Amino acid sequence: MATVGRNIAAPLLFLNLIMYLIVVGFASWCLNRFINGQTNHPSFGVNGATMFFLIFSIMAGVMGVASKLAGAGHLRAWRSDSLAAAGSSSIVAWALTALAFGLACKQINVGGYRGWRLRVLEAFIIILTFTQLLYLLLIHAGIFSSKYGPGYRDTDYPTAAGGVDPIHKGGTAVPASRVV
């Protein structure tokens, strides 16, 4: 059952995965240079927000890649139970990306010379903040209509013969084997 949300979320998931992998690469390179004490490298300016920006960028990148893996499983199954893993990891990834977005804005505002790698990393974080939010809204669009994806109240799970839920524990009591 291909729905509108699924058809739009799949290419966006792939795009975000590629962008998060690029963020992990650039952030890890810059953080490695920063830790090695090579801050007089042309890529770094005299900016106090750089270290915090790099740490939050690499955390957002790693969490973003993990959320895209859970999202790929959700797009394959496209059910309400897979939405829980994809949705929760996407919310955390977006929150970390939003924190890195704030630090990128602070780093741009403070100014100073920044090399091309830091500027590319800032641009990717700014773009990812909005594309991750769009992806998050798309996978949760089933709340409004089942046309857009699985909702939270879908009942298309298999049931036993006769339409009775096999997991329901109510009914007649089982007699005890020994009563003292």
Brief overview:
By secondary structure, this protein is mainly alpha-helical. The chain has helices at 4-35, 50-77, 80-110, 116-139. It contains 4 helices and no strands.
Summarize the helices and strands and which ones pair or pack.
Elements: H1 4-35, H2 50-77, H3 80-110, H4 116-139
What does this structure look like?
The protein is mainly alpha-helical and 180 residues long. It is built from four helices and no strands. The protein has helices at residues 4-35, 50-77, 80-110, 116-139. The longest helix is centred in the first third of the chain and has 32 residues, at 4-35. The chain is elongated and about 70 Å long.
Averaged pLDDT, please?
Answer: 82
Class derived from helix and strand content: mainly alpha
End-to-end separation: 56 Å
C-alpha-based Rg, rounded: 23 Å
Q: How much helix is in the residues? A: 55-70%
- Figure out the total of helices: 4
Beta-strand residue fraction = under 5%
Features:
single chain; 180 residues; mainly alpha; 64% helix; 0% strand; elongated
